[in-house]
Amino acid sequence: MTVNATPFDTSLDQLLAHLAGHDAKSLVIDYADRRIAPGYHITEVKAGSFVALDCGGQPDTWQETVLQVEDIPAKDGQTFLSVGKFCSILAQVDRKVGLHSDARLTFEVSRPGEAMQVFDVAGTAIESDKAVLRLAARPAICKPRHRAAVAEAASCCAANTSAACCA
């Protein structure tokens, strides 16, 4: 089963729902045109509340859950983290810190000695022996330009569903 998500819109609850019932499977992460090493380590889980002012002078607030992952080689036959272990880590963080289940989900991933990169969930695929979490690099966006493009597409589609902007 493959589930695709639009980058920027995946929440912790959505990811956990996709993984539900697959506790015994390995959780594999694909990012930056590579597959994470079986020794990967979740180094930190952050529950963030953000208040910002965009380049158009508009204030914005949102909640975010950030999973920081170190991509390190396996030691002594170590295998990928299981889906069940991943979920239990998040449950423990939720008990101790409190996670917002509908918060935007962000991954920060790097190998030792490399700069950390920021990713969104691009999709999940459930295979016979593993759950594959596909990450996509998060680009910077100009929120006013993004809001204008979304509004233009919405007004164009409302007026004419056969218009090119609705395709």
UniProtKB/TrEMBL annotation:
<dbReference type="InterPro" id="IPR045534">
    <property type="entry name" value="DUF6428"/>
</dbReference>
<dbReference type="Pfam" id="PF20001">
    <property type="entry name" value="DUF6428"/>
</dbReference>
<protein>
    <submittedName>
        <fullName>Uncharacterized protein</fullName>
    </submittedName>
</protein>
